[in-house]
């Protein structure tokens, strides 16, 4: 799993006067309160039975677990 | 640990076999009794059909009773090898998905949980992410305003996050998946909540410690207690959930092995396990059976187990709360969604690689909704039976001058009825008895009040069951005939209903109840007495719906959270009251939050 951890920059709260760090609600959710950028792959799983004979035969012959997607 | 606690291997297989065997035995016993009853006047094909229907129905009832018996004979204990004071290493995010909810109510819960966490003094890194799927711009705008207030009040810049999706792909499961694919790598664990969830800070920390201590654990589910019920219906459900459900859940926990349940909220997941196992594609075809997976939680639990992760219900964890519907109509609406979701699992039950118990859980979920159909089939077949029955032959022997009266097997039928009622009543009475003996009843007002509450709950559930089963049966038919129920938000607010409201929702139940009794009186008058407990509540459905939605002031149905309000609820009440003044509800509150009108603790 590839991780790109980039948490948003958060200025040290104690370093600035309270009035200066007050953002408008819209700027807040668009800026420091936006979700951190740290993607994680979430591959789609096989959740329906594959009833085709070829798939069932292949599964039986290879004895490989299917559906795990990873 | 008690002898039965968390069995594994051969013991687990043995316990499951015993439980299923006992349920099957009860079903077969009912079948045999009914066949003997039918033989009295000559066995007809319809008798065999009815016996099969009673077999399936009894087996289902007995399965519930067996779970309760297992729960009664075991104890909830924390898992071994977990230091309750261990320093937490990983980073956790608490996910709060919202959808047209009142932000003052929902975000004040976040503030309360954060304050509760802070009060523990633990330095664990716990963030909160509000994941909005809100479709209404005015509510979304209010969400942003209230969120800014939340961040400021909790001094939470860098710990609290807010995101609104522009589309609702995948509903709640898609909302969580969107978070994982954007931000999942930033967190070791994700605690998934509902908009009405509340958890004590200490409980959250214990959950993190437990999942951190067991590297194979993919998901840890708590047993949330239903709180803040104010109507008669809600308080009855709340009492049932607090008094009976823990015992049933413990029975379930004993049988779960490595494949425990996920109920979609108040549970923590290992982010990596969830990401690699739980990506849900849309099912082929159109809803109700195709499209996005509605009851995604069961599927996610099964997929985690398929990938080798442990999924566990720790029913010993306290401090986990949710709210429930205030009236029968809201309950039926929610049940409609669950019904469609569970029946949709028929498409998934055969997915490759699933563990046997996961498939069994899917089958159990489907059975929960189709079981009323078997009862309905039994009742219809019983009323119709006289039409197909040959006239009695009192002179079977030619030239024999005296009439022959077939032996009465009424005792078999009465025995069967007693047995079936026993399966419904005895587990609850045993739970009440044990609560009186081990002191649990103190939290429910003492032994006498708890026992009186149990009897009241039995009476209440007997009255409302025909109405609820009628709604459930309609849901099943709607799904089977291809009607998609959509996914409306819950209405968990102060939902008083008038008799007119009740009639609008349940006129068809009244009609079916009246017609059913009339047909019974015409075709099988001997059965009329037996069908009155089903037919009369159906005819009275509008009054029952209205009466049960009114506020309850009874001393019965007391639950621990009403006697001693949990800290997190008190904290939330205080914050909510303050915020409600800062953010008064917009003009015409109920219209503004048409999909989610509750401003929750106001009625608590």
From TrEMBL, chain A:
UniProt-annotated stretches for the region Disordered: 1-23
Name used for this protein in its record: Uncharacterized protein
Organism: Thioclava sediminum
């Amino acid at each position: 799993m590839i991780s790109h951890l980039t948490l948003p920059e958060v200025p040290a709260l104690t370093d600035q006067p309270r009035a200066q760090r007050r953002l408008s609600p819209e700027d807040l959710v668009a800026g420091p309160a936006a979700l951190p950028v740290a993607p994680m792959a979430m591959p789609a799983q096989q959740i329906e039975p594959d009833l085709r004979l070829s798939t069932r035969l292949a599964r039986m012959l290879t004895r490989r677990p299917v559906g795990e997607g990873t | 640990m008690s002898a039965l606690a968390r069995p594994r291997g051969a013991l687990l297989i043995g316990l499951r076999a015993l439980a299923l065997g006992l349920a099957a035995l009860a079903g077969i016993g009912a079948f045999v009794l009914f066949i003997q009853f039918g033989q009295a006047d000559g066995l007809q094909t319809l008798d065999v059909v009815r016996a099969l229907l009673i077999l399936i129905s009894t087996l289902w009832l007995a399965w519930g009773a067996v779970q309760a018996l297992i729960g009664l004979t075991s104890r909830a204990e924390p898992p071994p090898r977990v230091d309750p004071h261990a320093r937490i290493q990983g980073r956790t995010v608490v996910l709060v998905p919202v959808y047209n909810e009142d932000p003052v109510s929902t975000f004040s819960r976040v503030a309360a949980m954060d304050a509760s966490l802070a009060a523990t003094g633990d330095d664990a890194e716990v963030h909160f992410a509000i994941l909005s799927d809100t479709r209404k711009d005015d509510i979304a705008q209010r969400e942003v305003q209230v969120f800014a207030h939340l961040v400021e009040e909790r001094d939470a810049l860098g710990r609290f996050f807010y995101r609104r999706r522009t589309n609702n792909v995948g509903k709640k499961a898609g909302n969580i998946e969107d978070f994982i694919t954007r931000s999942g790598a930033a967190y070791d664990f994700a605690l998934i909540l509902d908009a009405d969830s509340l958890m004590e800070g200490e409980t959250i920390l214990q959950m993190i410690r437990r999942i951190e201590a067991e590297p194979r654990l993919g998901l840890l589910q708590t047993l949330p207690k239903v709180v803040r019920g104010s109507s008669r219906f809600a308080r009855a459900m709340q009492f049932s959930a607090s008094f009976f459900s823990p015992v049933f859940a413990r029975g379930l926990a004993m049988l779960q092995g490595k494949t425990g349940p996920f109920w979609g909220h108040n549970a923590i997941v290992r982010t990596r396990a969830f990401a690699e196992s739980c990506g849900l594609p849309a099912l082929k075809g159109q809803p109700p059976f195709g499209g996005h997976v509605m009851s995604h939680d069961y599927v996610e639990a099964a997929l985690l187990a398929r990938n080798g992760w442990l999924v566990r219900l720790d029913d010993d964890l306290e401090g986990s709360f949710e709210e429930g519907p205030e009236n029968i109509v809201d309950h039926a609406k929610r049940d409609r969604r669950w019904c469609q979701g569970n029946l949709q699992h028929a498409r998934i039950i055969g997915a490759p690689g699933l563990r046997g118990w996961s498939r069994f859980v899917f089958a159990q979920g489907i059975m929960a909704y189709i079981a009323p159909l078997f009862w309905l089939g039994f009742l219809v077949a019983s009323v119709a039976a006289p039409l197909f029955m040959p006239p009695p032959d009192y002179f079977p022997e030619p030239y024999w001058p005296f009439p022959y009266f077939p032996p009465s097997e009424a005792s078999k039928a009465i025995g069967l009825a007693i047995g079936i009622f026993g399966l419904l009543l005895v587990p609850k009475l045993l739970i009440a008895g044990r609560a009186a003996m081990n002191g649990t009843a103190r939290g429910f007002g003492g032994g006498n009040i708890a026992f009186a509450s149990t009897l009241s709950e039995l009476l209440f559930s007997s009255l409302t069951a025909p109405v609820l089963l009628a709604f459930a049966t309609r849901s099943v038919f709607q799904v089977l005939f291809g009607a998609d129920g959509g996914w409306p938000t819950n209405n968990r607010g102060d939902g008083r209903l008038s008799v007119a409201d009740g009639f609008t929702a349940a006129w068809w139940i009244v009609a079916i109840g009246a017609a059913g009794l009339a047909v019974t009186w015409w075709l099988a008058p001997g059965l009329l007495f037996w069908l009155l407990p089903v037919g009369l509540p159906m005819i009275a459905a509008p009054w029952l719906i209205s009466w049960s939605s009114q506020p309850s002031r009874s001393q019965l149905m007391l639950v621990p959270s009403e006697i001693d309000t949990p800290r997190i609820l008190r904290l939330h009440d205080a914050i909510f009251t303050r915020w409600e003044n800062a953010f008064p509800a917009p003009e015409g509150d109920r219209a503004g939050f048409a999909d989610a009108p509750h401003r929750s603790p106001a009625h608590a």
